């Protein structure tokens, strides 16, 4: 009699099982990262206005941009040191193909990442703005994992891809939820100053 696990082994190829294992590893890491973000008492940031929060996010995105600059440097260095220095020679493209694929994927992920963080900054309260640097740090870590895994073996890029794309997907989903529940115009976007003020203290 064939067991369920034996059926699963026959259902998936070796590469597909590796992808699932790497994906599960990334899920576990993301779960631990998210719990840390909720449980660790981060210092409170002083960002009372919407403009403050958007500028704060923009400045942190410079850190994420380092991953793209690194890709440009690696591609340029690879071309300089190999016969792929001529980008129009189809025979020599193989030397720079791997770093170019990293750069292309990072450009795509950075676009999604930056737009999602900008949208998130308009919905987060001042007390929760620590999620911006956390998500930026996660993006950089994920791109490093993607880069190293890609160069070791292309299939090992999966954890880095999941660690990059899933948080962006979660942030986009949260922003859509906020837009549906609170509307496009939120208490944090009615002006340069926050429209909410604490009630006066009782004496």
From TrEMBL:
Ranges that cross the membrane? 21-43, 55-75, 131-152, 161-184
Question: Would I find Zinc among this entry's keywords?
Answer: no
**Localization annotation:** Membrane
Primary residence: membrane
> What InterPro entries does the record tag this protein with?
MAPEG-like_dom_sf, Membr-assoc_MAPEG
UniProt entry tagged with the keyword S-adenosyl-L-methionine? no
Pfam families registered for this protein in UniProt: MAPEG
- What are the alphabetically sorted keywords of the record? Membrane, Transmembrane, Transmembrane helix
Superkingdom per UniProt:
Eukaryota
Q: What is this protein called?
A: Transmembrane protein 79
Q: Which organism is it from?
A: Porites lobata
